[in-house]
Amino acid sequence: MSRLNIHGRNIDLTVALKDALFEKMERVFSHYDFIQSIDIHLSVHKNPRIAEPQIAEALIHVNRGLIKVETQAEDMYASIDILVDKMMRSLTKYKSKNLGRAKSARSHKGESIRLYSEDGMMIPMDEQLDLFDIEFDIDVENEAAAFAEAEVQSRKYA
User: Is residue 101 part of a domain?
Assistant: First the structure.
């Protein structure tokens, strides 16, 4: 089960603000199951010269690391919306990166294809290609029929 921790600095965490945040975070938790916990820090700069004083930060603890996302806006609700969008993009990137690693490791299983001769010596790659001579006998006139037949054969063995 994932945890959600909310912290506020120079801001009162109202019930409406918490509800808006929980509503947005349900979408994140439903899409990604590898999240362990999320720490959200909401803060407001009191300096009137700062154009976008409402800051929302998220520290996302995932299986193999930590993802940090930060946004600023004039309104805290807008800052939360932007934060959730950035979190979704970051988590999608993380998921595709790590899922790609897992798929490639599973598909290769740590081995590569090598051909060996009868005496146990590995055959070099250029000689391996010479072992497989594939010839196609296709009449130019019956090319469409040959491709259709090949498609039927490939479906039959798939």
Answer: yes
Q: With 0.70 as the threshold, say if the pTM is over it.
A: no
Tell me whether residue 38 is in a domain: yes
pLDDT one-digit tens code per residue, 104-138:
555 555 455 566 667 777 766 666 556 655 555 55
The residue behind tokens 């979190």 is: 87
Cα–Cα distance measured from residue 129 to residue 123, given in angstroms and rounded to the nearest whole number: 10
Q: 């700062």: which residue's tokens?
A: 50
C-alpha 143/C-alpha 66 separation (Å) is: 56
Indicate the number of domains in the chain.
2
Which 3 state secondary structure label does DSSP give 67? strand
| Domain containing residue 75 | 3-108
The whole-angstrom separation of Cα 145 and Cα 151 is 10
